[in-house]
Specification:
This protein is mainly β. The protein is built from no helices and 29 strands. InterPro entries: WD40/YVTN_repeat-like_dom_sf.
Length: 345
């Protein structure tokens, strides 16, 4: 599903301090793809064929060569393998959904896959390692599109199972942050939304579980999913047309996604991306109107607001997250400060 850009503001009374350091990437593209590899390397992508790369933790962002015939494509997802190799996914109707790959630090790109279904729309691309990856698309011909590669994107094989069956008028995935899908031990899970409600679909065994997110409208549901190998997981979303509404914007699981419960204290509005900081056992979620954190595996959330030395909007206008980076509209990029998620005494 295509998600339009929404910019809103909201102030919260109860908040933690320390925040994002805003970086300048010298672009006005709307950014929704971000993948941090660590060791100061990260890649980002967005509208108008935009791809960015940094090797110094965002002090400088390189503007990559635009892939062939991609000047008007919207690159919603990016997965990088090192400082030279990455695959980008564009989202759009039919053959506007494509995959390109670079192996020379984005000097050149090769088209490796194009959507052949005129009714298709790709939503998320995720790799577990250098070889195993999954590609998710909205339902076509009565079933979600889910394809797998085991050779780094050279070839793709579409998955077929009755558990993937869905009515496109009732269910769809959201291409808001490239995080509506999670992969673990070679198995994919992904989230959905729409007037039929929010669900998580899981492989091995194939199954689906309803998730208490959104309000069963076309613009609401599950927008981002993160599952840990130990069982806990978090899903966030809501209604992107009502970004200030906080009910049913987060849910949690303790059994790998088989069962879900609503968060007791929700984030302060619609959220498009969620990630887990393992060293300090803290979840962080972002959206157009703010940033929230949870230290109890998604049961309760509190706002992470700017410190007195930050710009007043440092917590807002975000689309996608790959710690320590966050990206948003108009070329907006933030780097999470080292002490932002530290326990407060």
């Amino acid at each position: 599903m295509r998600v339009p850009l929404l910019l809103t503001t909201l102030a919260f009374a109860t908040a933690a301090h320390a925040q994002w350091t805003i970086q300048d990437a010298h672009t006005t593209a709307s950014l929704r793809g971000i993948h941090s590899l660590g060791n100061s390397i990260a890649w980002a992508s967005g509208t108008d064929g935009t791809v960015l790369r940094t090797e110094d933790n965002g002090t400088h962002w390189q503007h990559c060569t635009t892939p062939p015939a991609a000047e008007h494509l919207d690159f919603r997802g990016i997965q990088a393998f090192d400082n030279k190799t990455a695959i980008i996914m564009s989202s759009g109707k039919g053959d506007l959904s494509r995959l390109y790959k670079t192996t020379d630090g984005c000097q050149t790109w090769n088209l490796i896959l194009k959507n052949s279904d005129q009714d298709g729309f790709w939503d998320a691309l995720i790799f577990e390692d250098q070889t195993t990856g999954f590609l998710l698309g909205d339902p076509v011909h009565g079933s979600f599109y889910l394809s797998e590669t085991t050779n780094g994107g050279k070839t793709w094989s579409q998955k077929h199972n009755h558990a993937l069956q869905a009515d496109a008028s009732l269910q769809g995935a959201f291409a808001a942050s490239n995080t509506s899908m999670s992969v673990m031990r070679g198995l994919a899970s992904f989230g959905s939304g729409g007037v039929g409600g929010a669900f998580v679909y899981r492989m091995a065994p194939w199954s689906s579980a309803q998730v208490p997110l959104g309000s069963k409208t076309e613009a609401s549901g599950l927008f981002s999913l993160a599952l840990l190998s130990t069982g806990p997981g978090v899903a966030v979303g809501g209604d992107y047309l009502k970004p200030n509404d906080s009910p049913r914007t987060a849910a949690f699981t303790t059994d790998g996604g088989q069962h879900w419960a609503s968060s007791t204290t929700s984030p302060h509005g619609y959220r498009s991306a969620v990630a887990y900081d393992a060293p300090i056992k803290t979840w962080i979620t972002v959206g157009p109107n703010g940033t929230d954190i949870s230290t109890d595996d998604g049961r309760n959330w509190r706002a992470l607001n700017p410190s007195p030395t930050d710009t007043p909007d440092a917590d807002k206008s975000w689309n996608a997250l790959s710690l320590p980076f966050v990206v948003g509209p108009h070329g907006r990029i933030g780097l999470l400060r080292n002490d932002a998620l530290a326990p407060h005494k």
